Task: inverse folding
């Protein structure tokens, strides 16, 4: 049986890390695409030269032509520009919306049967635009944000409780931005919900509130430290987890930006919700019950995403 083919559109910090991880995990052959000549070829060759040391078999190829992504099983999109200090994800919209047009058309022409995972920010609006431009089915186009946001939340909770990150589960709903909704009630240590852990004296409400805020600001904290770009190790790891769930038909339940068509009372919007991801793509959206506060937070987040989609439509009226 031939190996799976993974196309990575964007060969920058996240794209290069994705290629390395895909190799290390032997997920398949990798085509790293970028508009900059030499960059994806150089990174691919460098990673390929690590294969004999690590002992993985995968063809890694750099490309500047969309024809090279033909037949890809998975396409992960990181093309575009990242944030610099002082910028919000939304400031990237103008440039990255145009990038999504080129990428969406390239995928439609050469890899229309692929599962597409978008990472480019502002995430929820970009995955919506990418779906529009590519014309692929909604269940085959999703956005990576929730896995990353909940990983940040899990790390901070594990550090607060002094337990393994493995035993902490956490859920984050809504858009990938300041309005994201970390759900404390659905976050646990070995099944024990965080509110119960507060009652058990493991932490205080104030400390958990600070962790929620740090999670919301998780991307900005790293941009502030790096000064020249944004996070890439954890975003790439999160993207690979989603790709693996699809390729291995694992039916993982992962938070991601998925297309809502009535779920949670929301129509025609991409926003972060829990999703069963397997060989059918985004197979099922999990509708958990939300209390009034959580619903209010989710609605606010959806409104923010809608505002960004409207801004995309203003930039390119063909999207309207
Ligand atoms: N087609 C393909 N690649 C493109 C295009 C395009 N039209 N425009 C830009 N690129 C490439 C750039 O040449 C660059 O190599 O996208 C790459 C982006 O890489 P980085 O600048 O290193 O950004 P990165 O940290 O990987 O983040 C990419 O993901 O998390 C988001 O906010 C982040 O939107 C940003 C994206």
Result:
């Amino acid at each position: 049986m031939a190996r799976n083919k993974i196309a990575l559109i964007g060969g920058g910090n996240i794209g290069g890390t994705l290629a390395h991880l895909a190799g290390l995990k032997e997920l398949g052959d990798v085509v790293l695409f970028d508009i900059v000549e030499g960059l994806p070829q150089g990174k691919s060759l460098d990673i390929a030269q690590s294969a004999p040391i690590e002992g993985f078999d995968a063809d890694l190829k750099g490309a500047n032509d969309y024809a090279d992504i033909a037949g890809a099983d998975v396409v992960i999109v990181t093309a575009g520009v990242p944030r610099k200090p002082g910028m919000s994800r939304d400031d990237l919209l103008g440039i990255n919306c145009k990038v999504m047009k080129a990428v969406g058309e390239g995928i439609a022409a050469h890899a229309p049967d692929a599962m597409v995972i978008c990472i480019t920010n502002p995430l929820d609006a970009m995955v919506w635009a990418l779906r529009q431009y590519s014309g692929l089915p909604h269940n085959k186009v999703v956005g990576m944000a929730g896995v990353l946001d909940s990983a940040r939340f899990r790390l901070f909770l594990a550090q607060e409780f002094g337990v393994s990150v493995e035993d902490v589960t956490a859920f984050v709903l809504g858009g990938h931005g300041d309005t994201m909704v970390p759900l404390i009630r659905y976050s646990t240590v070995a099944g024990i919900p965080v509110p119960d852990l507060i009652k058990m004296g493991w932490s205080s409400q104030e400390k958990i509130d600070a962790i929620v805020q740090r999670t919301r600001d998780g991307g900005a904290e790293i941009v502030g430290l790096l000064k020249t770009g944004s996070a890439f190790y954890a975003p790439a790891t999160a993207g690979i987890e989603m790709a693996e769930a699809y390729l291995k038909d694992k039916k993982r339940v992962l938070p991601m930006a998925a297309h809502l068509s009535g779920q949670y009372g929301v129509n025609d919007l991409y926003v972060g919700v829990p999703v069963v991801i397997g060989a059918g793509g985004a197979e099922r959206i999990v509708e958990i019950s939300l209390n009034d506060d959580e619903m209010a937070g989710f609605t606010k987040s959806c409104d923010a995403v809608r505002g960004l989609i409207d801004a995309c439509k203003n930039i390119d009226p063909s999207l309207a």
